[in-house]
Write a structure and sequence with these properties.
Length: 694
């Protein structure tokens, strides 16, 4: 049936007729978008895979398309996505379906009028050209004004192509079907009339429950992302795929991605400075260049950063899943809603890790990530997070999500130290009715692992909880190598029960238990210069007495929150064991950096969510201060690791043995801190780890 000829401009009266007309020709109520696409859609030459569309190639797309079908009651379909998962083709299929079997007034919104016209001339025109059913229904553009870059007419309906930057285009006509492509790029205010997406969605009001809105978009900045907001309001479906080994279903997560880079062993001769790559297991006794005798510590392993292989580690059985398994896994996958509920929009999240074999590979995801990490501006990391993970990017010091962190918890047990964690520090927060303590492990690049989080109940004005804390700080923690680690430095917040804290620290200075006080001011260094607290009645400082170390908490929180965003094992990454209580993650993420205006000046300050407890964040701050105190920035990790593995014992024992073997090299680790207490210079601290310094 031919479309009625229209006068200039479209009249809503005609559109209502058009709607009645559409219902009169009654689309095949049983036909779904995926069935239509499989039967009719042909991908043009420009497509990654030209030829007939096959939903089987992207099995996760079936449920999304079917929610857009006439027989489905869903009004709004949200797809938050990474690249190369066919998000746009799903929309194209839907448009083809509308034109061919479910006609009605439709609008496709692109971020700008120009991108709208361009995609109309390329994407839509090519689809119509390549798909016979569509070509038969939309007249040839060259001969007919009913087919232009901004308007396509077809029997029973029209398709308007609008730009989100033009209020006039968005307000042109009521529509039953609305396709909002790349929603996150829409302006928040268009021509002074409000957000573009809201203007567009108002067009669908007259259609009530019969409307359909499809929103596919790559997300952008956390907190400002429209697609994330839409996804969070939806029933939040994620695609679970079975492990080929243990069959357990899981969402493909970046935290389970594993890769190997090429490592080389090198001899760095201390005598002549020549660096020679060692092939095979060779360990020469002398330098090949100057013939000087070689100390084994001069042989170092270096990571070249060249990606050799990439695989996925099953979150359940830890089995190795190679990329060729992906096709079968996705075929057997299914969507599971995290927040199901009647009347909610259907929300789908897909990262590029689901991209079909041959489109975007896991190797490409890893390589892009490694590239992004080298970009000091953070811009590439943002792009990577948005386009590969299909997740929003939290800008520095923005609030991380407690659920994200919890989901990232790894397969090491609480109370144990993974292989790369080589040094333990602790921190203690003092409340009226309890002490909270955390033990953290540190490794190369300040990568860290939470080892233990402990709440010791009891009135902190009495000695009961303090005695238990004393025992706790004496514990040793099993290291994955089979050896044991002890806490080498502990920071205790002296902001409350100050005298109790001083008394506790006073008797433990030899174990590097020290008092700290937070300073909430921008720009403070994380660990400042200490001031002596123990003075005689004559006002002179008592040697070996208690010192109070100032901690720049604002600076530390910004660094910690920036690090919580790092999802890839390596420098700065913070790891959490399985089994931590939800309160821990809530407390860790309880604050955010807020800008307040005071007499016209912007001031940034950290604020706590109302009613939230933030002890876990304070503990992280002080544990980091303790690591800085212990000299984490100057540790020679290779030496430390070698000593640990060699002796398979307590690091302190190992250090003492190493000292006996090479006397006079450095002070013993057990050496009391008293000797340096009177000279509280930054270089004076951390002497006890001299053994492992660079
Ligand atoms: Zn498995």
């Amino acid at each position: 049936m031919p479309a009625p000829k229209l006068p200039e401009g479209l009249k809503s009266a005609w559109l209502l007729d058009c709607e009645a007309f559409a219902e009169a020709i009654a689309p095949d109520a049983e036909l779904t978008v995926s069935q239509w696409a499989d039967a009719n859609r042909v991908l043009g030459e420009l497509s990654a895979e030209p030829g007939p569309w096959r939903t089987d190639r992207v099995p996760y797309a079936r449920e999304i398309m079917d929610a857009l079908s006439a027989s489905d009651l869903t009004q709004e379909v949200v797809l938050m996505k990474g690249t190369q998962v066919a998000g746009t083709e799903i929309g194209n299929n839907w448009i083809g379906y509308i034109v061919d079997v479910a006609p009605g007034p439709a609008m496709m919104v692109m971020p700008t009028s120009n991108t709208g016209k361009r995609s109309s001339r390329t994407r839509l025109a090519k689809m119509i050209e390549a798909t016979p059913n569509l070509k038969a229904k939309i007249s040839d553009a060259s001969r007919d004004k009913s087919n232009t870059a901004s308007l396509k007419e077809f029997p029973g309906g029209i398709l308007v192509i609008a730009g989100a930057n033009s209020a006039a285009e968005l307000k042109s006509t009521p529509v039953r079907y609305l396709f909002e492509d790349e929603l996150d790029e829409y302006p928040d205010d268009v021509d002074g009339q409000g957000p573009a997406d809201e203007l567009a969605e108002k067009r669908t009001d007259t259609y009530g429950f019969r409307r359909k809105i499809y929103k596919p978009s790559t997300p952008t900045i956390r907190g400002r992302s429209k697609i994330e907001a839409a996804y969070n309001r939806s029933d939040r479906r994620r695609y679970y795929v079975p492990c080929p080994h243990c069959r357990q279903e899981q969402v493909l997560a970046w935290g389970q991605m594993r890769f190997e880079t090429r490592r080389v062993r090198e001899l760095r001769c201390a005598a002549c400075g020549v660096i020679a790559e060692l092939v095979g297991g060779a360990t020469p006794d002398i330098c090949t260049s100057c013939k000087a005798k070689v100390d084994p510590v001069q042989i170092l392993e270096r990571d070249t950063g060249e990606v050799l292989e990439v695989w996925y580690e099953c979150g359940h059985c830890t089995g190795r899943i190679d990329e060729h398994h992906k096709t079968a896994m996705i075929e057997r996958g299914r969507w599971i809603a995290e927040a199901p509920g009647p009347g909610k929009p259907a929300g789908f999240h897909l990262s590029a890790l689901y991209s079909p074999l041959g489109w975007f590979s896991w190797t490409a995801a890893v390589k892009k990530r490694l590239e992004a990490e080298k970009d000091p501006t953070g811009e590439l990391l943002k792009v990577w997070t948005n386009t590969v993970l299909g997740e929003t990017y939290a800008e520095a010091s923005e609030q991380p999500s407690d659920l994200d962190l919890k989901n990232r918890a790894e397969g090491y047990r609480i109370g144990t130290v993974p292989m790369a964690g080589l040094m333990l520090t602790a921190s203690v927060d003092v409340q009226a009715d309890r002490l909270e303590a955390e033990v953290g492990a540190w490794g190369r690049g300040e990568e860290s692992w939470l080892v233990q989080y402990e709440v010791i109940h009891g009135d902190t004005e009495t000695s009961v909880p303090w005695d238990r804390l004393s025992e706790f700080l004496e514990l040793t923690f099993p290291h994955e190598s089979g050896s044991k680690l002890r806490i080498i430095a502990t920071a205790i917040d002296a902001g409350f029960r100050t005298q109790m804290v001083y008394d506790f620290c006073r008797h433990r200075t030899h174990r590097h238990v020290f008092a700290v006080k937070g300073q909430a001011r921008a720009g403070k260094s994380i660990l400042g210069r200490p001031t002596p607290q123990d003075v005689t009645h004559k006002g002179t400082t008592i040697k070996g007495g208690v010192q109070l170390w100032p901690v720049g908490v604002d600076t530390a929180k910004a660094r910690i929150y920036a690090r919580l965003k790092i999802t890839m094992t390596g420098p700065g990454c913070m790891h959490f064991p399985l089994g931590l209580p939800d309160e821990y993650y809530k407390g860790l993420t309880a604050e955010r950096l807020v800008t307040r205006y005071h007499k016209g000046y912007a001031r940034m300050s950290w604020e706590k969510d109302a009613g939230a407890r933030n002890e876990p964040l304070d503990l992280k701050v002080y544990a980091y201060a303790a690591a800085l105190y212990a000299g984490i920035t100057r540790v020679n990790w290779d030496k430390l690791e070698a000593t640990l593995k060699l002796t398979g014992a307590d690091l302190f024992v190992a250090a003492a043995q190493a000292e006996e073997a090479k006397p006079g090299d450095a002070p013993l680790p057990e050496k009391p801190a008293a000797a340096r207490a009177t000279q509280p210079t930054p270089s004076g601290r951390g002497n006890f780890i001299n053994r492992w310094r660079n």
